[in-house]
Amino acid sequence: MVRWSRRNWLAGLALAAAGQGMIINAGQPRPKKTALGRGSTLTKCKLALEDYQPRSMLHVPETRVPRARFPVIDFHTHLSWSARRGQVTEAHNNATPEEVLPVLDRKNVRMMVNLTGGYGKVLEQTINYWQKPHPDRFVVFTEPWFGKITEPGYPQFQADQIARARELGARGLKLLKTLGLYLREQVTTGPLVKIDDRRFDAMWEAAGAHRMPVAIHTSDPEAFFLPTDRFNERYEELSAHPDWSFHGKDFPSNLELQEARNRVMARHPETQFVVLHFGDSENLPYVAGLLDRYPNMHVEMGARIGELGRQPRATRKFFDKYQDRILFGTDAVPGGVDTPQQIFGEQLYEIYYRFLETEDEYFDYAPAPKPPQGRWRIYGIGLPEKILRKVYYENAERLLGLQKMAVS
Ligand SMILES: [Zn+2]
Fold this sequence. Notes:
- The chain is α/β, with parallel strands linked by helices and 408 residues long.
- It is 35% helix and 11% strand.
- The protein contains 13 helices and 10 strands.
- The strands form 2 sheets. An 8-stranded parallel beta sheet has the order 1-4-5-6-7-8-9-10, sandwiched between helices.
- It is globular.
- It starts with 5 loop residues before the first helix and ends in an 8-residue tail after the last helix.
- The structure holds zinc ion.
- Zinc ion binds at residues 76, 78, 331.
């Protein structure tokens, strides 16, 4: 007689299961095995990556934040673009104020900064359309007239344009990543123009002299500079937008672009720079070092809560230390379709508020069935009231030279 023990009871169960398994499998096709190594039993999966939409099984609190706790200045939006029709460039509005304002009211957004106001005639049209009728709700930034860079006297012309834009009512200057990644010596051909090219010195100085903060987008996520292959964490995003890849060709590296921008900030200490998209949101220690080095630098978070929210402890410490230098922004585009992380609407604002105000765990950073900027989810950083006020409106108010809002 065999003495009964827990060990041989478990062994017996395992044998029974194996035997039963053989019976069940008899006469049925055997599942295919992948070559993952000895002992692997993973059934070959036929589901395409693009069709995979896993849903989290975590039972964790889900806090809805329909309104920001304090009034918000959204420092990074695109309510309009400059659109070229034949020889004429005109303002193209992505929405009407009447469409946008009710959403802002419901979400407690007091003011939107429309960064892409253009220059010349387009700037005037844009200011007349958004800012003049609603000066306490919309402000407009101007952009450089890059098409003129080949003309003699461009540096002074560009500086004069900044002064003219200020007279028209523009509140700041916006630089797209065009500078560093697209603009070439003959505008579209020739070598790339460097961000710290001396021809822009007069422009940076003029912005500082006219108290116009410079919102500058430099470079892009680090993965955009790497091959679009199976190791790239933004493989799906780059596959959907191959033109977003800056790998190879004559593109500078991410670090070279950042360093060129840093030299501009160092050279123009009286000009305030708002480094959009957090500068390099994958590398917070690097960004912290820059904020320590350049007192005229600030950061804005638009379209980067996906990065900030997947490193919530580092981000929370960063917000503590640099609470006077961080601006709220969404990079929202009314009517946008191909970048879910930027589609203007109530859902977008609620995600940002949830990230900043709650300690919810593992939620989507964009209103989309699949995370569009990488296959991960984010964690809220639960900021205290004092920091929320600064990030939501106080820092932007100060930079834009606005009158202090009455906030209870
Ligand atoms: Zn933007």
